Amino acid sequence: MPTPPVITTVDGRLGRIVLNRPAALNALTTEMVGIVHDTLRAWHDDDRVRTVLITGAGERGLCAGGDLRAMHADAVSGGGGSLEFFTREYDLNAAIAGYPKPVVAWMDGLVMGGGIGISAHASLRIVTERSRLAMPEVGIGFHPDVGGSWLLSRAPGEIGTHLALTGTTIGAGDAITAGLADCFVPADRIPYLISGLTGDEPGVAVSAVTTAPPAGDLDDARDWIDECYAGDDLAVIRTRLAGHGSAGARAAAEEIATKSPTSLAVTLRSLRTAARMSSLREALDQELRLSAAFLRLPDLAEGIRAQIIDKDRRPRWAPVPPGLLYELFKRS
């Protein structure tokens, strides 16, 4: 029989959800999203399950995001599969955030894009020394979705803006600083955590194995990050970064210069509008409208081609006129 893409079990009082496509870094499909959501619905009123744990199979990562090859095929053919996927995925993100039972996410290894969406909305988010988190969507002609605009707009200072516009990958310490994770547990202690979760309350089980996280880089960079990324004008932000005395700021300017101009403009505005919203659901609804628009724009297919399909890393961006971007947000 074929291996199921998601494995669900109940062990003691613990309901376990394991994303099970390790060869694809557990990249999400519509089927996987449906299985996870259906499982959460089934456990909602199941008295056997007191806590839910989300993990990924293999040692390379929890989840590398959505299936970009399928998204590319959909974008170039004008299909509707990706929009259905986004709709179901964002509903799952909201369900995790509002789940009435504790949801523990083990954000081990690579956690990108949709992997953030299935874990960073959990009630207890655990990182390890192997954790590598990123929202790299501007590099493929897209925008931080799966509630990314909500999460990043609420990071301290302008950290979220920096992460969104550069797609920078961060480790455990910086993930906690950015508000994308809660505590650090060394990877070799995870089996003890899982054992504890089968009988103890999540807080008790986690406190028995958590330790201080390794030092990150974001705290030391706050001065130039908060100064350079302030405001709503992307051109001003890039000028500040390029002219700053910090090597980190200049490196950020160079990195931003490689990203889709359309994605950068939409992402900055998405974060600023999400910061004024009152709920994750409202941000997800805006993200869905933006995602639907990106499926019709050329940069998404081109960005995935350059990064995933041909891997030449030389995307030929086709910027959208600013007036059309204004209309996009006016409709949203």
From TrEMBL:
<keyword id="KW-0378">Hydrolase</keyword>
<dbReference type="Pfam" id="PF16113">
    <property type="entry name" value="ECH_2"/>
</dbReference>
<dbReference type="InterPro" id="IPR045004">
    <property type="entry name" value="ECH_dom"/>
</dbReference>
<protein>
    <recommendedName>
        <fullName>3-hydroxyisobutyryl-CoA hydrolase</fullName>
        <ecNumber>3.1.2.4</ecNumber>
    </recommendedName>
</protein>
<dbReference type="InterPro" id="IPR032259">
    <property type="entry name" value="HIBYL-CoA-H"/>
</dbReference>
<dbReference type="InterPro" id="IPR029045">
    <property type="entry name" value="ClpP/crotonase-like_dom_sf"/>
</dbReference>
<feature type="domain" description="Enoyl-CoA hydratase/isomerase">
    <location>
        <begin position="15"/>
        <end position="319"/>
    </location>
</feature>
<dbReference type="GO" id="GO:0016787">
    <property type="term" value="F:hydrolase activity"/>
</dbReference>
